[in-house]
Design a protein that fits this description.
Blueprint: H1 15-19, E1 36-41, E2 47-53, H2 55-58, E3 63-68, H3 69-72, E4 102-103, E5 109-115, H4 118-125, E6 129-134, H5 171-177
Antiparallel strand pairs: 1-5, 2-4, 2-6, 3-5
């Protein structure tokens, strides 16, 4: 007898440790000499970055460093595309970790503050002054591909990331022989699955070994913390 999946209740395995306070969050991990990072993000969907003044933030209490896109340009590689669509003309435009000249969505990272405590890092963000020149934007994916629409990336003309044809059999013959053909435009909402907990991470760096040791005791073996790691 096969196990029935559809229509049956499936108990969530992770809930007991979460609702009883036994789960470990990144906020629960305390390392010797641990510092905290907070990220300043763009309030604009599309804008030129005219200037980023971080002078006041650098002198704020507890601040160890402030970095912008100009600091990481040529130092950090662009973030890779998660999925290169096969058999398509996909245009994997460069995606820097922090915007340098142009922000292309609300929440695009503009600067990062590293401080001794989380509160100090977040407070120092308020001292950063970014001068933007807002640009036109389009929130309708179809209209964004029309002539005259705001262009986000020079390497992706008409804002089209890729054109992918998926077919099987003789589609043209099927339509020609069909008694009824229905034509319609279907708008699919944007969708991205996210975990219940916002993303954050903790990592340790060994200056003696000049590498990140394998952090078996950490939940995520990568650098960067604190964008509200606990609900």
């Amino acid at each position: 007898m096969t196990t029935r999946i559809f229509g049956s209740g499936i108990r969530r395995r992770e809930d007991p440790r979460l609702i009883t306070g036994q789960a470990n969050y990144t906020d629960d991990i305390k390392l010797t000499g641990m510092v905290h990072a907070a990220i300043l993000r763009s309030p604009h969907a599309h804008a030129k970055i005219i200037s980023v003044d971080v002078a006041a933030a650098k002198t704020a209490p507890g601040v160890l460093g402030v970095y912008t896109g100009a600091d990481t340009d040529g130092v950090l590689n662009p973030i890779p595309c998660a999925w290169l669509v096969p058999d398509s003309d996909v245009k994997a435009v460069p995606y820097p970790a922090m915007a340098k000249d142009v922000v292309r969505y609300v929440g695009d990272a503009v600067a990062v503050v590293v401080a001794e405590t989380r509160a100090q890092a977040e407070d120092a963000l308020e001292a950063i002054n970014v001068n933007y020149e807002t640009l036109s934007a389009s929130v309708n994916p179809e209209l964004a591909t029309h002539d005259g629409a705001a262009q986000l990336h020079e390497d992706a003309p008409n804002n089209q990331a890729f054109h992918w044809v998926v077919a099987g059999g003789d589609a043209d013959a099927a339509f020609e022989s069909a008694e009824v053909v229905v034509r319609d435009t279907i708008i699919q909402q944007r969708l991205i699955p996210n975990a219940m907990e916002p993303w954050s991470a903790v990592a340790s760096y060994s200056s003696a070994m000049e590498h990140h040791p394998e952090p078996a005791h950490l939940p995520v073996p990568l650098f960067l913390g604190h964008e509200y790691s606990r609900a």
